[in-house]
Known about the structure:
Blueprint: E1 10-14, H1 18-30, E2 34-38, H2 41-51, E3 55-59, H3 67-76, E4 85-90, H4 94-102, E5 107-111, H5 115-153, H6 163-166, H7 171-212, H8 221-228, E6 236-247, H9 249-260, H10 262-286, E7 290-294, E8 298-304, H11 312-327, E9 332-334, E10 340-342, E11 344-359, E12 367-371, H12 373-384, E13 390-393, H13 394-397, E14 404-412, E15 417-425, H14 444-447, H15 453-460, E16 469-481, H16 491-508, E17 511-519, E18 522-529, H17 538-550, E19 560-578, E20 581-587, H18 589-600, E21 605-607, H19 609-615, E22 619-627, E23 636-644, H20 653-657, H21 661-673, H22 677-689, E24 692-694, H23 695-701, H24 711-720, E25 724-726, E26 734-737, H25 740-748, H26 752-769, H27 778-787, H28 791-807, H29 811-828, H30 833-838
Amino acid sequence: MTTIATKGAKILIVDDQPFNVDYLEQELEDLGFVTVSASNGQEALDQVAKQSPDMILLDIMMPIMDGFEVLAHLKADQHWRDIPVVVISAMNDIDSVVKGIELGAEDYLPKPIDPVLLQARLNAGLERKRLRDQEVEYLLQVEHLTDAARALEQDEYNLESLKPVTMRSDALGNLARVFDRMAHEVHFREQRLRLQLEQLRLDIQEQEQAAMETVADYVPMDRRHALVEDRTLPDRCQGAALFADISGFTALTAALANELGRERGAEELVRHLNRVYGALIDQVHRYGGSVVSFGGDAITCWFDVTGNPNQPGLSATACALAMQEAISDYYNITTAAGTRISFAMKVTVVSGSARRFLVGEPKIHNLEVLAGELLEILALGDLLATKGDVLVHDSISSQFDHHLMVSGIRQDDPSGHQFATVSEITEKVPISPWPELPSGTLTSEQVKSWLQPMIYDTIKGGKSQFVSELRPATVLFLSFQGIDYDRDDDAGTKLDGFVRWAQTILKRHDGHLIQLTIGDKGSYFYASFGAPTTNSDHQYQAVKAALDLKTAPAEFKHVKRVQIGIASGQMRVGTYGSPSRRTYGVMGEKANLAARLMEVASEGIYCDEAIYLGARDRINFDTGPSFHLKGIEEPVSVYSPINSTPGISRGDDRIVEKTTERALQEVIKYRIDRLPPAPMLALKVASVIGSIFTIDLLDAIYPDDRDRKNLSLHMGLLMERGFISPLAPQSSPGFAFADTTTRETAYDLMLYAQRRQLHRAIAEWYERTFASNLAPYYALLAYHWARAEDAARTIDYLEKAGEEARKGGDFQGAQIFVEEALALETKASVLSKGYRATGENQEPSAK
């Protein structure tokens, strides 16, 4: 009878006699086999290619191609040679049978065919095939394993390559699983070490850049040269505008927030943004352009006709192509958890006349803006562009059509504006980089008004790397229309007046106007509350400011269609950009949300749920519809403020009234923000050391060499303000934080990268200072190396701390240290040498 292993097997019957084929088909199908047939040798080979039979019953004498030729073809092909073949021959044709077996047939069946013998031959042949297939598969998987070992040695191992072998239940599968686990450990250890090296490289790079940073970096390049030459930039200018819009940061924001949390994710996002901006802005400056404004993940640039040896439109187009080439290094970014994010950019270029304004109250903040119909055309091009495009407006492409390789034309039908998709410039466009300004030619006082006063003081004091912080804040986006930038000669005056009025309103509510942009979202600005200075009431104050801004005085009756979006949450506040052109901004998911809410506000004010919850006790709200917003998966509920609820206290009085832990932290942040930059930095650095610190250690790790001599003065001010108190006299003056909350609040204001650098410096100081006897500091070193994100050193010191505790009889403490080390080994996939030496099954306490 047919076995379970052979039932359902596919048998190819090859015979030129229909009667024989019919007979065999009937017999085989009764036995549970599947049959296919062929009437000659060539047809048999075709069926083998199409059907992949498990076995072949082959007649010898056939037209076109006989059975011997079929056998020769089968055995010559590596894919077919293992298909068992049983030749069918007459009883008296022994020579044909022998020849068939010599050519590779498994067996033979004499005619007339006996059903019992037929079944026996089939079962035996199929069983041999099954065993042979198993052997071939086994040898193939052994080869996979040896190839994997070779690939691992050559650093080319694919973590998924052994998955089929590891699924086996035999000894080979067990060996593959052990090897795969070891390979994963090696891979993740190397990946983590590479990540640590990359973090160190970026930390060093950021420190070096911060040391060279000046206030002038926050001013557009053409404005810097105009200030040095004591000339003004005309408010009507001729040239080319370039808008570069980077995509991929929304996905990266979500991935980093999921892997690292929102706070750490926002910080890492800015690191990636800085790297991309560094590559792009270098190209802008190489071609004589200036970055006028930033818009999160987009920049607006200007190439002026004055002093440009090339036509500005051609220079801007060449720059756009160079920017696309520069960003190609960042097309794919892999996060620490292995998530791959694809980056892309679209660039639009248009030439013509534009308006260039410098607006705002200088004592508060000057803002650069490029305006006019040219910017509206630029925004149209951005809507038509797709990832990877360089779209060049007809104002340039028609003039330089003989220089440009054009792959297509895009048109905005309502306006009729056309854009060429440019892939190449056929003639080399010379670069025209800005000449370097000699040191000292541009003073800090000349560019002071381009920064918020607090930010200016910090950067001027050489502490720019500590401008950036993580803190709760509220962002308000406001868009408006009504100013005819091209035809109204007074447009600059009107815009300046409106901006100054808005700055006054915002200042009244402890808010700060950060950026003004005229581009893809029309005319809009955004403001922050709670950053750069703490405002414990930032949600309420933002709503109050929005209600005031919604109703402009009569002198601004030309301002129309005011739409406002407000959102609140934990933000990364600080500087970003390239080493040669930077800006200050507030970044995070909630900043993006505020911009989206502004777009759908329809001449109203839309707030997110966090604003509603934070201000509803003093503001009446209407509940609006839910919106599906770009970049946000779930629908967003919105709330529209109507007016204030009477009889409720407002302002900073609430700080005193609140008694919760969160309110206490807000009070401390408020007090920290009002420290001068140098003592504020000293307080933050001390918070990394711990609740108690010595002046010797603080001096050793303090990041500002020029200010180190003033640390004693800073300690005096911090004691006077109640942040710290002196310890009893000892060899090195020591201090203690006033309370745990003060220390934690100062610590939490720092970016993760800042903390990481300082924890590393502290650990290295202990290793140098107490090199002759580190044993008392093993646990402390493990703590600092852990926060420096060096897993290998952390594990090493945890194991040493555990051994010291065991020697001292503190077995419970020893167990805690060793368990922490093992947990970190598992998490980081880094096995210490000691752990490898003891073997996996040995108890931790025996180490």
